[in-house]
Amino acid sequence: MLTQIEGIHHITSLARDAQATDRFVTETLGLRRVKKTVNFDAPDVYHLYYANGTGEPGTVLTYFPFAHIGAGRRGSGEVGTTVFSVPQGALGFWEKRFRALGVVGLSHEVRFGEDRLLFSGADGDGFALVETTGDQRAPWAGADIDAEVALRGFHSASLVLADRGGTQALLELMGYRPEGEEGRVLRMVREGANGAGIIDLETQPDAPVARQGAGSVHHIAFAVADDAAQLTVRKVLVDNGFQITPVIDRDYFHSVYFRAPGGVLFEIATNQPGFARDEDPEHLGEALKLPRQHASLRETLERSLPKIGD
User: Fold this and answer.
1) pLDDT single digits (tens) 55-76
2) All domains in the chain, ordered by first residue
3) Are strands 153-161 and 198-203 parallel, antiparallel or unpaired?
């Protein structure tokens, strides 16, 4: 069993409208935009990162907004719900705020004894808030939301699967253990995690296979401390038969990718070097930052990319 996995690092989704996405995440949810850069493989598309004030792993929600992308189809083989932690007693504030701002898809449920407020993102993304106690992660203080109710970071992610067996075995290899089961949902927990140590496996054998598009989660990334830890994890996964990419430099972390047995794209990402490597911590996410290979496109991209945060 691996001990290097620290919990969720980030979750990356697809969107249609960069401006609408940015407004929803910063103004409705109150997260900080900590990086404004571009997709490594499609530099005419933003890669937008949102998190708490420092961009702490376990709090990072990112988006690829493709202007002409179709809507995603929900189903098996994807992250169905991205779940954030809020302090005990905060759900009343959030429900009132969401209703005032016209957020759709509002409903309540209790899962494993936790009260959850479900809602939809700008493209129908599946989100939920869960009340927790003892979450010491500092919220972003720059939004119009009191710290007593603000989002702390990820609580968990729910993976929708036709058959959970292979993914459960993979997570157990990655240091997670089953904690409980309710109906078709198995909760997997990583002890001593970074605050984002829960993965729920939802078995839906009759669901259609998910089709990615606007509102879909593209991949979920798991955190490791550094390059050495990542290489250890990679070797163990390769030795267990997984087809994994070489290490890829993503400027703010180093990544390897592989497909989990249930169809979800997994990433292992380092905590280092972080989002302050090329930007003053006081001004994260303000300027357009470009990967080295796309630096020559700056003039064109600054002219063509939608204006956000101005």
Assistant:
1) 999 999 999 999 999 999 999 9
2) 8-304 (3.10.180.10)
3) parallel
